[in-house]
Amino acid sequence: MKRICNMWAAVVAASLCWMPSSLWAQTWPEKPIRIIVPYTPGGASDITARLLAERMSTRLGQPVTVDNRAGASGIIGTEAVAKAAPDGYNLVFVASSHVVNQALFGNLSYDPIKSFAPISQTANVQLVMVVPATLGVNTLAEFVALAKAKPGTLSYASSGSGSNPQLFAEMFKQSAGLDLLHVPYKGSTAAHTDLLAGRTHLMFDALASVGPHVKSGRLKLLAVAGPTRSALLPDVPTVAEAGKLPGYGATSWGALLAPAGTPKPVIDRLHQETVAILNAPDVKERLGGLGAEVVASTPQQLADIMLREEARYSKLVRDLKIKPD
What we know:
The chain has 325 residues and is α/β, with parallel strands linked by helices. The protein has 2 domains: 163 residues, Bordetella uptake gene, domain 1 (D-Maltodextrin-Binding Protein, domain 2, 3-Layer(aba) Sandwich), CATH 3.40.190.150; 117 residues, D-Maltodextrin-Binding Protein, domain 2 (3-Layer(aba) Sandwich), CATH 3.40.190. Helix content is 46%, strand content 19%. It contains 12 helices and 11 strands. The strands form 3 sheets. Strands 2-1-3-10-4-11 form a 6-stranded mixed sheet, with helices on both faces. Strands 8-5-9 form a 3-stranded antiparallel sheet. It has a two-stranded parallel sheet with strand order 6-7. Helix 2 links the parallel strand 1 and strand 2. Helix 2 crosses helix 10. It is globular and about 65 Å long.
């Protein structure tokens, strides 16, 4: 009898815990939703977040806005969401560099993994290697030859210390045995001015960001950073191919997160809407034009990716002794 009573007590307790979030999910959303992008406008994360926000507004019947809060390698905007109420009204769109900030800075007020509830990985983004047209090189091999002939005189731009553009460039620098100066900026867009003017000489960035400059002829696209060629750029070699650097290969990814503790029914609804938007043929085509290949993962798949990538990039930060500026 005691065992039966305990069983019913557990059932009642579970029901009490379930009902509020279930009822909440039936009425959610009741007010506008904000997606914070902790990077500057114009980058791949910003463009993807705005595409999601536009479609979500229609599907959810509430305004969904994008708020760019750049700075400190994405920490400022990300911290705001980590501290927000876990009610589904404040989300953050992060790039894969999100998971390296703990290793890079060490004293974050939030945990890149534990402080967030995964919603979906949105896409894989091939970063491309570009140089100013005025540099006078047409291939990756020519860039390597120039850098070796002038050690310490060429520089690479990045969107900040610990960002994917820096990590990918550092991996290239180490693999090719080059002496390059790192020049960090507050976001990709800010880095482009000096790159276009030839004051910096190399950058790894998303095609969405540098594509217009490549099309105009002001930047030259030398290679893609991924381990294999991109289906979106089949004629462009990988860094490993073009530089004869076996083992080199890395991709960026985007992800939508909510504060930890957000009710599961709300996460499920956000995931459902996000995946539906990403899998729409016109959205896939739009993102493909930006160099992004849609993933639309489950929350658990995203959680697994974040754990793996955190271990990988944290090791890279330690091995290369990367420090914030």
